[in-house]
Design goal:
By secondary structure, this protein is of the alpha+beta class. It has nine helices and ten strands. The protein has two domains: about 200 residues, no CATH class; about 40 residues. The N terminus is likely disordered.
């Protein structure tokens, strides 16, 4: 996609008080996964743009592989849009996250990596969270050129709000196995003021299949040893029996 899904939705929804966006990355042990995008606009946004639900277009997103789970009304009168993109590998997840980013953020150099050995599966998510250009990052360059600035910037300024009061972006990771990260809840907030935050998490999962095969191989070895002992014992028994018969004769 030419622009990030999150960026496009924010540009459409940034009409007044608050728009919260979350990017959820879920990876499974086999390397498949799903990237979920959720955009939540409060009731003030809906009040200032009553035709918002009908104006949203998903054609480009659907062509890019996204599935629209639905646009619903929240209990307080806001709108909630949920979209997801299935991925078949860590590389595919990286490509989807890069498509969300666009040129100015919020996901810079974000990479999903997976390494599988006979003992462990290691899945990592790394990158930098940063928004370049303030509210300008949440609009297509053609829009900025046409209107001469960020959409609704005057509205936010007149309401004496900071960009962080109007827009929030969060990233959440779900990785297989035991996860190590500086973020205890595996959720990171993207700075809107131009500063950066590190995105880093690693999950390590012991190979269940290798453990099972280890048990099977151990049992097989024990059975083999028992069979060898039984065979040797039987041979000795037969030899002794023949010797005894010979002596009797």
């Amino acid at each position: 996609m030419r622009r990030a899904i999150a960026v496009a939705c924010l540009a459409l929804l940034l009409a007044a008080c608050r728009v919260d966006t979350s990017v959820d990355v879920t990876m499974h042990p086999d390397g498949t996964g799903v990237v979920t995008l959720t955009v939540l606009a409060d009731k003030d946004v809906v009040a200032q743009a009553p035709g918002l639900a009908d104006d949203l277009r998903y054609d480009d997103a659907v062509k890019a592989g996204w599935k629209v789970d639905g646009l619903t009304t929240t209990p307080d009168g806001g709108l909630k849009l949920v979209m997801h993109h299935d991925v078949a590998s860590a590389a595919a997840a990286t490509a989807v996250l890069q498509s969300i980013n666009g040129h100015n953020g919020p996901l810079h150099d974000v990479v999903v990596n997976r390494v599988a050995t006979s003992d462990h599966i290691t899945t990592s998510l790394k990158g930098t969270l940063r928004v370049d250009g303030g509210l300008d990052a949440f609009a297509d360059p053609d829009v900025l050129k046409a209107i001469g600035g960020a959409p609704y910037a005057d509205n936010i300024s007149a309401a004496h709000l900071k960009p962080t009061d109007a827009v929030t972006v969060k990233v959440t990771a779900h990785l297989p196995g035991s996860v190590t990260s500086a973020s205890k809840d595996l959720t990171w907030s993207v700075p809107i003021d131009g500063t950066s935050a590190d995105l880093a998490a690693t999950g390590s999962l012991a190979q269940g299949s290798s453990s099972a095969w280890g048990i099977v191989s151990t049992v097989a070895l024990v059975l083999l040893v028992l069979w060898v002992l039984a065979a040797v014992g039987f041979i000795v028994f037969v030899a002794n029996a023949r010797r005894a018969r010979t002596l009797r004769r």
